[in-house]
Specification:
The chain is an alpha+beta fold. It is built from 15 helices and 16 strands. The chain folds into two domains: 16-170 and 228-319, 2-Layer Sandwich (BirA Bifunctional Protein, domain 2), CATH 3.30.930; 331-420, Rossmann fold (3-Layer(aba) Sandwich), CATH 3.40.50. The longest helix is centred in the first third of the chain and has 20 residues, at 16-35. The mean pLDDT is 91.
């Protein structure tokens, strides 16, 4: 017996109700992107590995543990994209987008790849939507992207969302903080997990993001106490904008995000679960990354962005019992017999060309099943073409609300159907 194949661990098929929810998320993202002036961006599945080792950081978990990297036949080191910000900045530099009116604003809805332990809401191939604004910065840009995502989540029915927010400072004040943090971690190294013992020298900020080293954070220094006047004022402005916009937020002094390119304001979106005992659900996050362009060989470019997990948003939509509005067909065509199928196929195309919303179930032969399907779909009219009607060049027109039926000629049927639909809308 031939081997039966299954999807790879951590990879998943999107179909049925999940596809419908994906499409709803995509639709709301696209609508809001246009309102806020963001343009669509499609990036390659794979990039030069250095785009991520230099951009994201070679000592981050993404680069050290999670990237799918390999050599091509030509000897190039490439990686499947684990995130979207670095590739978009690469494109911004490569195509000279800094010569255009600034800021350049992009959004994406795409799959990404990370090798990590599959669990609820987390996959090795996962989907994200994101927004990036490059070329001009400031607190108002951070605040607007936060409110954009907040509005999208609200429109999708994801309730009780809160933004956890922090400021990571610039190269100078963050540099001072790292020195203090390293001393503290060295003094308390016996309390660190094995991973953080390696991180404390190479990437000490990541210790603050560790889920295992919770106790050591209780007495750890906080970066907000080391911000320079400029970063402190910038952060204060972002918070004032959020308060003005009535966006709920919590200050989290240990929020650092996991990527080296972040600086200044950083944030994550969390949704509180209906079950009060369940922890808040992380949906995604973002922040400023003014230094990313420089890491990729250009000069410092003001930039900010955010990325959200689509599977996680869909999971919460389902948990919150968000009902998707499906478009009801105006007309359903039911048929019986080969000649009737041919006539029904032609009629289907004629109705479609006339702008009438039409559905069918040509694969079924049972009239009872087809009419039941038309009823479930909420069709206004059902056209029935049986063997007798096909020979007579007629059809039965059934009003699905009243159940009344009458025979009409095939010629002129489209005009008759359009008139009935028009009359129904006036009632």
């Amino acid at each position: 017996m031939p081997k039966k194949f299954q999807s790879l661990s951590g990879m998943h098929d999107v179909f049925g109700y999940q596809f419908d929810y994906f499409e709803r998320v995509r639709e709301v993202v696209l609508k809001n992107a246009k309102i806020y002036g963001f343009h669509g961006f499609e990036m390659p599945i794979a990039e030069n590995k250095e785009v991520f080792t230099r951009g994201v950081g070679k000592h981050t978990d993404i680069v050290e543990k999670e990237m799918y990297s390999f050599k091509t036949k030509g000897g190039d080191d490439i990686s499947l994209r684990p995130e979207g910000t670095a590739p978009i900045m690469r494109a911004y530099i490569e195509h000279g987008l800094y010569t255009r009116p600034q800021p350049v604003k992009f959004f994406y809805f795409a799959p990404f790849f990370r090798y990590e332990r599959p669990q609820a809401g987390r996959y090795r191939q996962f989907w994200q939507f994101g927004f990036e604004s490059i070329g001009k910065g400031g607190p108002v840009v951070d605040a607007q992207i936060i409110v954009l995502v907040y509005n999208i989540l609200k429109e999708l029915g994801v309730c009780d969302v809160v933004v956890e927010i922090n400021n990571m400072g610039d190269d100078v004040c963050r540099g001072e903080f790292k020195k203090v943090l390293k001393k503290y971690l060295k003094k308390n190294s016996s309390f660190l997990c094995e991973d953080c013992k390696k991180r404390k020298d190479k990437n000490p900020l990541r210790v603050l993001d560790c889920k295992k080293c919770v106790k050591i954070k209780e007495e750890a220094p906080q970066i907000v106490d080391y911000l320079c006047d400029s970063c402190e004022e910038d952060f204060k402005s972002v918070l004032e904008f959020l308060e003005e916009l009535k966006i709920p937020y919590d200050l989290n002094p240990f929020l650092v995000r996991g990527l080296d390119y972040y600086m200044g304001t950083v944030y994550e979106f969390f949704a509180r679960r209906k079950d009060e005992e369940s922890p808040s659900f992380a949906l995604g996050g973002g922040g400023r990354y003014d230094g990313l362009a420089e890491l990729l060989g250009d000069e410092v470019r003001p930039a900010t962005g955010v990325a959200m997990g689509v599977e996680r948003v869909v999971e919460l939509m389902r948990e919150n019992k968000v009902i998707l509005e499906s478009e009801k067909p105006q007309v359903f065509i039911a048929q019986l017999g080969e000649l009737a199928k041919k006539k029904a196929l032609v009629l289907f195309e004629e109705l479609k060309k006339s702008g009438i919303s039409v559905s069918e179930s040509f694969g079924q032969d049972s009239l009872k099943s087809q009419i039941s399907r038309a009823d479930k779909m909420g069709a206004f009219l059902t056209i029935i073409i049986g063997k007798e009607e096909a020979v007579e060049d007629r059809m039965i027109l059934r009003d699905m609300d009243s159940g009344e039926q009458e025979k009409i000629k095939t010629s002129g049927a489209v005009k008759e159907i359009k008139e009935r639909i028009k009359k129904s809308k006036k009632k």
